[in-house]
Amino acid sequence: MKNVKNIRATVLVNNSVYLPNLGAEHGWSILIETGDGSILFDTGQSDLLFRNAKILNCDLEKVEKAVLSHGHYDHTGGLSSFLSLNPGTTVFAHPDVFKRRFSIKPGKLPRDISMPVLDQKQQSNFYITSQPAPVLDHVFTTGEIPRQFDIGGINKGLFCDPEGKNTDSVWDDQALVMHTPKGIVVLMGCCHAGVENTLETVAGLTGEKKFYMVLGGMHLSEAPEDRLQETVRCLHRFQVQKVGPAHCTGWRGREVLARLFSGEVFSCDVGNVIQLN
């Protein structure tokens, strides 16, 4: 698998913004542009990505590949509108992406957090697999991530039914891996599999034991202190040089990374452009 010499990643949706006039929401979407094509990774929870893309001069009509990190509404809400704009786009996803899922918190009614329903024509765009899948020459999905390490109740309160009888382990969670001249870049959605399990899977798939950059949601907003510290130890173990926390990493997770991680911690707010030349 070759390295690509020019990759530009533009954050289109996140919980916070980097530039004025852009919008924020609880969600995640990032556009990856390369000389071999463009990839939209997740779509936020609404059509906000289109307004932000227009302001940032990102042409979504040229995107031929989309990847869903998992089937929660805050990562898939803009997908139907995106497919209406790009009816020929291939969407890479895990078989569980269409499952119904619910968030149930003490004292509150169940909340449906599933991917919005798509019509049959749009569902035909999907390339469904639980295995790693090549997206471009230098980019592939991890597929389903084995839970080798205990992730300490990271998915607490998530269920596949409104009664709360069937726990949702979010097995459709996957990451996107890019080979660049500077090294491996790992792009995550919410990391429901846990950072340790995700990076260990990437290491097994690539044969690499150190990574240049890890960015995206890390599901640390409600993590206990030992989980946060274990995440930092994992990043050090794989000699990660740069970390871009976003979305469900949460402010506390970002603060701990900034304080304990020895490498560079950078912003992944809406409008930030990450050059991987």
UniProtKB/TrEMBL annotation:
<dbReference type="GO" id="GO:0016740">
    <property type="term" value="F:transferase activity"/>
</dbReference>
<dbReference type="InterPro" id="IPR036866">
    <property type="entry name" value="RibonucZ/Hydroxyglut_hydro"/>
</dbReference>
<dbReference type="InterPro" id="IPR052926">
    <property type="entry name" value="Metallo-beta-lactamase_dom"/>
</dbReference>
<protein>
    <recommendedName>
        <fullName>Metallo-beta-lactamase domain-containing protein</fullName>
    </recommendedName>
</protein>
<feature type="domain" description="Metallo-beta-lactamase">
    <location>
        <begin position="26"/>
        <end position="247"/>
    </location>
</feature>
<dbReference type="InterPro" id="IPR041712">
    <property type="entry name" value="DHPS-like_MBL-fold"/>
</dbReference>
<dbReference type="InterPro" id="IPR001279">
    <property type="entry name" value="Metallo-B-lactamas"/>
</dbReference>
<dbReference type="Pfam" id="PF00753">
    <property type="entry name" value="Lactamase_B"/>
</dbReference>
